[in-house]
């Protein structure tokens, strides 16, 4: 059974950093594309960053490029999202998700419609 559990969210001041973790079970993270998404109050869920299965190719939304880094630890079966230079507009619930292999192994499209398995989310609040 595929399960994803996010952790690492919290309250941070603007300019600060957080590292989110997505612990996977029921599958191995290097065999599937995995993504981080976020949903702010009153807004649609959006793709933040995704990583491919083969080659670990990454994708970043323009709004986070240069500030966020997605990575994968195969030994721990965990995917991370390192978030630096955080801004108030980064405030949202952050989710990790994975794609059925039938929908491909690439990082793109990093879109909600493509992902079937979701974690419960972790709240990130950026405020002074």
Report on the architecture of this protein.
The protein is mainly β and 128 residues long. Helix content is 0%, strand content 45%. The protein has no helices and eleven strands. Strands 2, 4, 5, 6, 9, 10 and 11 form a seven-stranded mixed β-sheet that branches. A four-stranded antiparallel β-sheet has the order 1-3-8-7, with no helix packed on it. The protein is globular and about 40 Å long. The model has no long low-confidence stretch (mean pLDDT 96).
In whole angstroms, how far apart are the ends? 40 Å
Low-confidence segments, given as residue ranges, are none
Mean pLDDT score: 96
Strand content: 35-45%
Q: Structural class, from secondary structure content?
A: mainly beta
Question: What is the count of helical runs?
Answer: 0
Compute the CA-based radius of gyration. Answer: 13 Å
- What is the element string, with H for helices and E for strands? EEEEEEEEEEE
Global geometry: globular
Percent helix, as a range, is under 10%
Largest sheet: 7 strands, mixed
The count of DSSP E runs of length 2 or more, i.e. the number of strands, is 11
């Amino acid at each position: 059974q595929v399960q994803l559990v996010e952790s690492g969210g919290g309250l941070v001041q603007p300019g600060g950093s957080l590292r989110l973790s997505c612990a996977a079970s029921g599958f191995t993270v290097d065999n599937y594309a995995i993504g981080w998404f976020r949903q702010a109050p009153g807004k649609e869920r959006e793709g933040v960053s995704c990583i491919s299965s083969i080659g670990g190719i990454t994708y970043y939304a323009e709004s986070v490029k240069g500030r966020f880094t997605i990575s994968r630890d195969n030994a721990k079966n965990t995917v991370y999202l390192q978030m630096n230079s955080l801004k108030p507009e980064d405030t949202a619930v952050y989710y990790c998700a994975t794609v059925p292999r039938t929908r491909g192994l690439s990082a793109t499209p990093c879109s909600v419609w493509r992902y079937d398995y979701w974690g419960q989310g972790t709240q990130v609040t950026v405020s002074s």
